[in-house]
Amino acid sequence: MVYDYATKVKGTQGSPIRDAIVKAQGEGFISFAAGFPDPQAIPMEKLSRISQEVLEEYGIEVFQYGESIGRAELRQQARKFINMDYDVLKEGDDILVTSGSTQGLYIASKIFLNEGDVILSEDPAFSGAFASFRSNGATIRGIRMEEDGVDIAALEEAMASEPKPKFFYTIPNFNNPTGYTTSFEKRKAIYWLAKKYNVIILEDNPYGYLRSAGEDLPAIKTFDTTGHVLYAASLSKIISPGMRCALLCGAKEIIAKAVIQKSLIDSSTPIWNQLVMAKFLEQTDMRNHIRYISDIYERKCELMHETMAATFHEDVKYGKPEGGMFIYFELPDYINLQDFVNEAAKMHIAVVPGSAFSVEQPQRCNGVRINFSIPTVDQIIDGITKIGALTHRLCGDQIN
Amino acid sequence: MVYDYATKVKGTQGSPIRDAIVKAQGEGFISFAAGFPDPQAIPMEKLSRISQEVLEEYGIEVFQYGESIGRAELRQQARKFINMDYDVLKEGDDILVTSGSTQGLYIASKIFLNEGDVILSEDPAFSGAFASFRSNGATIRGIRMEEDGVDIAALEEAMASEPKPKFFYTIPNFNNPTGYTTSFEKRKAIYWLAKKYNVIILEDNPYGYLRSAGEDLPAIKTFDTTGHVLYAASLSKIISPGMRCALLCGAKEIIAKAVIQKSLIDSSTPIWNQLVMAKFLEQTDMRNHIRYISDIYERKCELMHETMAATFHEDVKYGKPEGGMFIYFELPDYINLQDFVNEAAKMHIAVVPGSAFSVEQPQRCNGVRINFSIPTVDQIIDGITKIGALTHRLCGDQIN
Predict the structure, then answer these.
(1) Among A131, A226, A228, whose Cβ lies nearest the Cβ of B264?
(2) ipTM of this predicted structure
(3) Domain B44-284, classified CATH 3.40.640.10, yes or no
């Protein structure tokens, strides 16, 4: 049979991150592509012990259907955790437990987007979010990301344009892929613009707790007294991605709509997963826990950056992120990005071309995203040294 | 802020099943509304033991990201199980692990439906599926369900109509809410029509294994040599709904599209849940297990049916289903359905009006769905006796 698919999924591609991994498979394979947590940073033993507690304490409840909005235990613990340092969530806000924050982004686009609607996004930003927005009918307009956050003048111009954008997508902490963090001033400006033009902010914060340097900044949601900000909080990078538990937070009215969509998408996040996460949050000094895992990532980031400094050609430009899981480097204009990625893949090293994260003019992007959380210390030294040699080979070829 | 939601979610209502439960809460509350498994039928101890095995055997893998298509272990075990009695799945078919079969239905509609597309459905059928189809832009056309399956002449006429329907939704075993089972002949006819008119069959089989009488019949998918049938298999009713593990099965090309949508919706079903289910299938004689749980439901169905026979007014019509979790009864024309449901709710008894499951003319529906899997023996006797008295009160009021 010849299938007649929906128009908006016809062109949908698989993940460019996964493509990069598949292409580079082989002997001595090193992946700098995925954003998996370091196994050392996943509290496996504690989670396994808590699993036992949950099964004993809750019994049959674990194995029955649950409420679509999520378990009260997890929603309470999550609120406490999210509001640990700032009043991110207010009285009028509610929390939906989602199966990963990917699902939170999907549901947010589902409830707001009609076919052909425009949304705004930091450019570059997370490719998986773009796929989600597009699969719900969106046309994305990219707003240039600068080292201290999005270009505010360009954001205002875009918010004031017709057709009116439905929301603005932002990753204020350690933007994926650039690692850039939005400054305090720009966070306030973004919220102010949202209010002025009545555009929702979809604030995605998967990496915020993984800060190894610089000062912690409040979420944009912290300023929100008017229900303009939807906040997607993840537990994947700080506890475990395999649990598939995250939180979509916002005005009660929006969350009520989100709950209905959640009920259609998977009925509810499984109970075991929610209760294990709730108990973990309850039993853990999260400040200590976060310090412990941030230290792991700080050491790896440091090592990757040092190795780059020691081995990369001087024409390759990069900064040192204050947290997150990625370093982003820009190749000189005279190097072809795809050639570079392919040459790395031939050496069985997976890196993700920045073009995958670009909205406007991906063909002009010459950036590369490399991950330091999942490779081992040896893989970082070995892989980066090889990439460094590759930069010299390709840059040198051009100069000579 | 005043929110501007997507058109297709504006009118989306919460579940009528949940509404019925909420309305009837109170002292001595008895729910005949939900389709939860009997706690006795959930193999809790075995699942808890297997959980421990999985955590010990797989360690950190349980807590990392997984592939969107699902774990090979579960996909293999599920294929063996699904093909236990018939060759339901063929060489050319693939399996996607979904977070409940609700998600399978959602993904199927997502990949096929454009805004305004028409789909066909047995009428009545599962309200949650309708909500899913509609939230993906579908207009549903209902085809009258008869005791031996859908009206085949009406189905052919609808398949031949313009605009061409994208798929036909069917629950051939113990249709929800009626309990009707599609005959062998009608199954063959449905597949033959699907081929003739090139319309996909979306075959939903949550209850097929819960047969307490009559002869087991092959899934429509069993006849499928041309990729016309998408088959949603559930493990919720026979193992545990809380695990949120189900299977969407069909032609490799469709499943490849489904995997991409799954990656956007929740990245993957959590690993722990998948591995526990895989091991359960591997370690269990599923024929024995199914016989054990079918016996539980057979006894409850028998008891409910007997109590109805002893207490219901003779103008109320109903059959005795050969399996599933529900009995469906029709009130006489002179009784108002909503009055009946409201009166039951006043007695703290939750029943679901059949109108919730109707596509065409829900206002003319006078059926009521009652569940026998979750209430206890005492609740069945007590609740049905009260409903019986209510039928006499309402019918008698009219006759006198």
Answers:
(1) A131
(2) 0.96
(3) yes
